[in-house]
Fold:
Amino acid sequence: RRRKEISFSTFNPSTAGNTIAPVINQVIKGMKISATFTAILVVRVSAFVPLSKLSHVSTELYSSGSPFGGQGLQWTAGDDPNAKTVRLRDKLQEADTERRKDQEAANQRERAAEIAREERLRKIKYMTDMPDSQPAGTVEEFMFKEGVQSELDKLDNELVGLLPVKRRVKEIAALLVLDKMRRKLGFETSVPSLHMSFTGAPGTGKTTVAVRMGQILAKMGYSRRGHVVLATRDDLVGQYVGHTAPKTKEMIKKAMGGVLLVDEAYYLYNAANDRDYGQESIEILLNVMENNRDDLVVAVAGYKDRMDKFFSYIPGMMSRIGNHIDFPNYSADELVQIATVMARNLEYDIDENAYPVFKAYIEKRMELPFFSNARTVRNAMDRARMNSAIRTFDKYAIQGFNGGVCTVKDLKSITAEDFQVLLDDILNADVDKRIFS
Structure:
């Protein structure tokens, strides 16, 4: 419009600049607005165009998928848009399950504690209301009913002498009987420490007492089986690394429910060798003695002086043993009585005039090394039986006495002549050979 209003005929160079400048400014401003609108329109339209249609090429900096290098934080769980929701729901369900289990366990513990409190209150009321004159039965009744008295009688018949040992065994039996009577009435009871230590010379009856104790414990209900398993170092200690534990556990497994008698237990520990494998066996035994004392009785045996030294090295063993029984040596008269018991069990008859000869042999043998009490008597009886057999065979088979027909008395008798052979061997043998007589 302004262009039309300008007339070339009236064109004045001096005033033309003032008239055209505003027009140019308006044209430039319109061009800027048009360019901005075009850019916005292109961006909005490109948002709806597929990526494959665009000729956009990413720069090398972002070609790896992440401006920081490596794998970018991109969703790779698949095309399912509900995957995130499913995983979150599973996590919440797992948390709820764990919380519910913990709550149930807490409720069970509270219920168990409540039941224990109620049971204790009922027991207290029962014990309070029970009159002191309530009959609990006689000790003799429990002794005979449970078969304890029969085992004690066998101990008296089989073991000659050893009065301190028998007294100690009877004391343990009395504790078990009274404990069972208390349990019957509802008193609080606990299993006493039944682990034992037997100290004494060889042949003093340690194994026999252990067998009787196992049977007494079985009859009283303190042992499932009552058997005795005898073990030494060779049975418990291995010869290389990793061999000791299986051997010790195998012996313990055999003895479970009864008595494990470890003979000469001091050989398990070697103070001169820190790498000795016996220490591992001792640690296993200590653990079992503490944790399985209701199902296994461990008895250790050996010479008293050596056992005392062994306990000084292993104080844990000493503290776990509640019954220490010392077996004294037999006297000569007691050993003669043991020979009589052995002969009776084998259905032999010892002549009256044979006892002085046998006693003289025992007294001489006790002065020599390696004397083993009842074991020496057993060996002497075996030799006396052999001498009796030789004498009878020579009389009836070689000499043909009575037509070769012998009597029952001949087959059962042990005479002074049979023991005199043993005594002569000691009196006439060389000094170095007397210990074998």
In short: The CA atoms of residues 148 and 242 lie 42 Å apart. Strands lie at 196-200, 228-231, 259-263, 297-302, 323-327, 349-350, 413-414. The longest strand covers residues 297-302. DSSP finds 17 helices and seven strands in the chain.
